[in-house]
């Protein structure tokens, strides 16, 4: 595994990312982590590392990336725009995308942006790893919002900046999940020809109404054996990868 040694500049600061795997391959995969996580949680199998080149960013407010004190920096749209800049600078042509939890809505925004703006880049497949769909998926982010918005300024301490990043990220995530917009947008991507695999951890079977909602709308759920919410790194990781 390489260290975090790459970054793109945004108006808020730098977004860092790792590049792993077969760096000579023209096949690219992108992993977008969830709330409160970072790029270090993504460890693809050796088979997948040998097969393709992996791009794994730290979302703004997470890991080594910048932690600005502006709400605008933490919207799903802003995060998707920052990642779009990464894949554009890397001259990616075909992209395989995995979005986990909060990373799911970011992935939806990114796929829409690529479809709308790119002529020389396309998304081959989207894996929606327990990505948010409705209000029931906001079990963690709503608890963060209940604590209230931290008081921060330009010279705040790192811990305060991290707390603000968690609050601001949760705010946009909850608003988007409660709006009911995510399922229709995911369906629109599918109906537009994008292959989508929806994955839930086996340990969460029957826990989330979003899984039943997705199935009702024609999405087949892949239940990952022994997996929980973070099946890419927990006991379910062998089955997930």
From TrEMBL:
Matches recorded under InterPro entries: AB_hydrolase_1 (IPR000073), AB_hydrolase_fold (IPR029058), AB_hydrolase_sf (IPR050266)
Superkingdom per UniProt: Eukaryota
GO molecular function: monoacylglycerol lipase activity
One GO biological process term: acylglycerol catabolic process
Residue span(s) of domain AB hydrolase-1: 30-120
Alphabetical list of Gene3D superfamilies matching this protein: alpha/beta hydrolase
GO (cellular component) term, any one: membrane
Protein name per Swiss-Prot or TrEMBL: AB hydrolase-1 domain-containing protein
Annotated source species: Hanusia phi
């Amino acid at each position: 595994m390489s260290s975090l040694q790459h970054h793109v500049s945004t108006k808020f600061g730098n977004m860092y990312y790792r590049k792993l795997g077969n760096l000579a391959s023209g096949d690219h995969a992108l992993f977008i982590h969830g709330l409160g996580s970072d790029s270090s949680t993504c460890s693809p199998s050796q088979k997948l590392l040998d097969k393709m080149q992996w791009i794994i960013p730290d979302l703004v407010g997470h890991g080594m990336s910048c932690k600005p004190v502006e709400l605008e920096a933490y919207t799903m749209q802003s995060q998707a725009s920052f990642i779009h800049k990464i894949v554009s600078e890397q001259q990616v042509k075909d992209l395989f995308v995995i979005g986990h939890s909060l990373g799911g809505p970011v992935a939806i925004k990114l796929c829409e942006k690529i479809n709308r703006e790119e002529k020389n880049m396309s998304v081959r497949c989207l894996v929606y790893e327990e990505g948010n769909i409705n209000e029931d998926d906001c079990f963690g982010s709503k608890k963060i919002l209940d604590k209230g918005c931290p008081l921060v300024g330009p010279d705040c301490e790192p811990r305060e900046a991290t707390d603000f990043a968690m609050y601001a990220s949760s705010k946009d995530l909850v608003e988007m999940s409660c709006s009911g917009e995510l399922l229709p947008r995911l369906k629109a991507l599918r109906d537009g020809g994008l292959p989508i695999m929806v994955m839930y951890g086996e340990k969460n079977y029957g826990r989330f109404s979003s899984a039943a909602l997705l199935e009702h709308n024609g999405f087949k759920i892949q239940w990952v054996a022994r997996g929980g919410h973070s099946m890419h790194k927990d006991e379910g990781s062998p089955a997930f990868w």
